[in-house]
Amino acid sequence: MKKGILLVVSAPSAGGKGTILKELFQQNETLRMSVSATTRQPRPGEVDGKDYYFVSRETFQQWVDTGSMLEHAEYVGNCYGTPKAPVEEWLNQGLDVVLEIDVQGGSQIKNLAPDCVSVFITPPTMEVLEKRLRDRGTEDEETICKRLATARQELTFAEGYDYIVINDKLEDAVEDMQAILRSEKRKSARNPGFIQRVLNI
Ligand code: 5GP
Known about the structure:
Blueprint: E1 6-10, H1 17-27, E2 31-33, E3 37-38, E4 53-54, H2 57-65, E5 69-75, E6 78-83, H3 84-92, E7 96-100, H4 103-112, E8 117-122, H5 126-136, H6 141-155, E9 163-166, H7 170-186, H8 194-199
Parallel strand pairs: 1-7, 1-8, 2-7, 3-4, 8-9
Antiparallel strand pairs: 3-6, 5-6
Helix pairs in contact: 1-7
Bound molecules: guanosine-5'-monophosphate (5GP).
Guanosine-5'-monophosphate is lined by residues 13, 36, 40, 71, 73, 75, 80-82, 100-102, 104-105.
């Protein structure tokens, strides 16, 4: 069976990737979202097992030590990682999987799975990003400042990604993501044996 596409999506915190991905999922039945593990506290409304697996540092370290994580990284004082088993299972079933991870995780996945597709979603300007982060109202001033400094650093990694999508108008960003996914599915390298089947040989 043809393996699914591993789609790595990175964006600075509050870069709007959640909204874009939500739309993308509504338009693609074969897309699956990897649920990460994190040691950070849940934000209001976040659900354990849906938004993240909220775990203690001990549990997180145990998962790392037993090789259960595909990648992991520390981000603004908390640990984040991708549980390996569901991702492998879905890809083997021919389903496409989205990893919404930071740039450190993104580069680990690129090394591990060079045929993954990486997309960096960027805000149009830093001012827009700061406004979104403040409007969200979930972080204190110190965390906002840390996340903005981290975002500046993260943006310098964007050029290492296969694609850059600008999150200015939501519909345009979703359309770009959809176009990327469609084009990647049409790559000849992702369709081995297809022409032989057309030729019936
Ligand atoms: P937040 O705390 O805002 O939900 O996420 C902070 C950062 O951690 C974001 O850049 C997000 O993409 C990243 N992140 C979430 N899950 C993972 C993961 O499993 N691995 C890595 N490396 N980063 C993650």
